[in-house]
């Protein structure tokens, strides 16, 4: 993967199957022949409160020391009630996600393990930040690009869209605003929160729906310990594979999306290289709405290495007549979300999508062949630490949301992470107290 432009704490590792480095490198070289892409990106930001942060890493490696295993990470963190959470997540989330992926995996296995690792990484980052006793919070939209495969995990209302020229604009994230998401409102109230508008003198209610205590408009975030654990850090995750014509991602905080619909944002960026497109999107948002919030945008182009254009070329007219940017409906197999290939006429293949806020469901859906081969028998699925044999508790055990007939099987949680899971599900009060 070539990249062109316009940054943890150590943990005790689990013991995994050892595979010779030479074997891993041979796998990566073989994969590189079919998955090689060029990634070009640009970033632009206009601060108002100074609570937006972004992360760009183009030098990550699945196999340390092997440049053919490079993948890219792009992320935006929109903080609220201060910037401490956004800074902490920017500095730690990537390490926690990578730390949750077993060692010794080939590329395809690594991509299959990524959705669950993202859930574990988000929850671990939230748990560590809350332990500091600070009350700020942040959204997180976290994008990993490996060849033609794009994996997006998100909490909050920052957004990532995909634009393939000649097709429809597609949303790769889900907005976790209480005002707009009835399912999330039901979950929050069922877990012990109260949802309502701000009440002023005379009992008049104003503004968007909020969660009380705290008054947060979002149902998912990282941090926000003063609101309640039912505001969960469990991300919506979507994984797709582009066709060889490539595509463009626009990742931005709500300062941009509150001003521009997804289609308008994509349209104003077309025909421009990534760096200019990011600046144009921010400029258009300010022109439309003014500077009412921090506004941050990252534009990323994923294109074939032989392409001389800065953005993916238009599709043939014959293909445009079809609904080009369409996703195959995801598999309903509870153990594997991997979908079958789409017809050649389609542009994007959906590999995985899951948005459940129940941790037992998200950690328990690992394909059995992968978990049996590469998982530690008694390691916490969140903390990544080995557990004393008397302390491990299966994520499936006694969960009211579990349908497992074998609750003695993993993955396992330590006592602290199990308490956090129960608090997020409303089965116990939050163990974190505001000083």
TrEMBL record:
Give the enzyme's main class according to its UniProt record, as a single word. hydrolase
PPM-type phosphatase domain span: 33-302
Name the Gene3D superfamilies for this protein: PPM-type phosphatase domain
Q: Which InterPro entries match?
A: PP2C, PPM-type-like_dom_sf, PPM-type_phosphatase-like_dom
List GO molecular-function terms, semicolon-separated: metal ion binding; protein serine/threonine phosphatase activity
Required co-factor?
Answer: Mg(2+); Mn(2+)
Q: Report the EC code(s) recorded for this entry.
A: 3.1.3.16
Query: Coiled-coil regions in this chain?
Result: none
Q: Which SMART domains match?
A: PP2C_SIG, PP2Cc
Q: Which reaction does it catalyse?
A: O-phospho-L-threonyl-[protein] + H2O = L-threonyl-[protein] + phosphate; O-phospho-L-seryl-[protein] + H2O = L-seryl-[protein] + phosphate
Protein family membership: Belongs to the PP2C family.
Q: Which PANTHER family match?
A: PROTEIN PHOSPHATASE
Name of the protein described by the UniProt record: protein-serine/threonine phosphatase
Query: From which source organism is this entry?
Result: Platanthera zijinensis
């Amino acid at each position: 993967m070539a990249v062109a432009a316009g940054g943890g704490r150590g943990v005790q590792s689990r013991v995994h199957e050892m595979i010779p480095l030479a074997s891993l490198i041979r796998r990566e070289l073989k994969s590189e022949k079919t998955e090689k892409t060029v990634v070009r990106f640009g970033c632009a930001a206009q601060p108002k409160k100074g609570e937006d942060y972004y992360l760009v890493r183009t030098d990550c490696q699945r196999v340390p020391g092997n440049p053919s295993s490079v993948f890219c990470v792009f992320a935006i963190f929109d903080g609220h009630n201060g910037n401490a959470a956004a800074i902490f997540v920017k500095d730690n989330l990537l390490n926690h996600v990578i730390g949750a992926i077993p060692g010794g995996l080939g590329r395809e296995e690594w991509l299959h393990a990524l959705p669950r690792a993202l859930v574990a990484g988000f929850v671990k980052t939230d748990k560590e930040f809350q332990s500091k006793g600070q009350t700020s919070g942040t959204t997180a939209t976290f994008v990993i690009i490996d060849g033609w495969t794009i994996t997006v995990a998100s909490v909050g209302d920052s957004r990532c869209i995909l634009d393939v020229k000649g097709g429809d604009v597609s949303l790769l994230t889900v907005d976790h605003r209480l005002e707009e998401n009835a399912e999330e409102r039901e979950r929050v109230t069922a877990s012990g929160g109260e949802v309502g508008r701000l009440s002023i003198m005379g009992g008049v209610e104003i503004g968007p729906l909020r969660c009380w205590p705290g008054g947060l408009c979002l149902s998912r975030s990282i941090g926000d310990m003063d609101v309640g654990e039912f505001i969960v850090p469990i991300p919506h995750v979507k994984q797709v594979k582009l066709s060889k014509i490539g595509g463009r991602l626009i990742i931005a905080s709500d300062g941009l999306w509150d001003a521009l619909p997804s289609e308008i944002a994509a349209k104003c960026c077309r025909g421009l290289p990534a760096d200019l497109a990011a600046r144009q999107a921010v400029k258009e948002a300010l022109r439309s709405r003014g500077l009412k919030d921090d506004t941050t945008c990252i534009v990323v182009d994923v294109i074939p290495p032989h392409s001389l254009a800065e953005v993916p070329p238009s599709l043939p007219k014959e293909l445009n007549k079809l609904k080009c940017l369409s996703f195959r409906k995801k598999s309903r197999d509870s153990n594997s979300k991997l979908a079958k290939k789409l017809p050649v006429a389609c542009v994007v293949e959906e590999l995985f999508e899951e948005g459940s806020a129940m941790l037992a469901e998200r950690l328990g859906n690992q394909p059995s062949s992968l978990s049996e081969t590469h998982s530690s028998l008694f390691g916490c699925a969140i903390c990544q630490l080995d557990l004393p044999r008397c302390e491990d508790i299966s994520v499936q055990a006694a969960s009211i949301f579990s349908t497992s007939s074998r609750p003695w099987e993993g993955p396992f949680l330590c006592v602290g992470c199990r308490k956090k899971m129960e608090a997020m599900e409303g089965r116990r009060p939050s163990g974190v107290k505001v000083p």
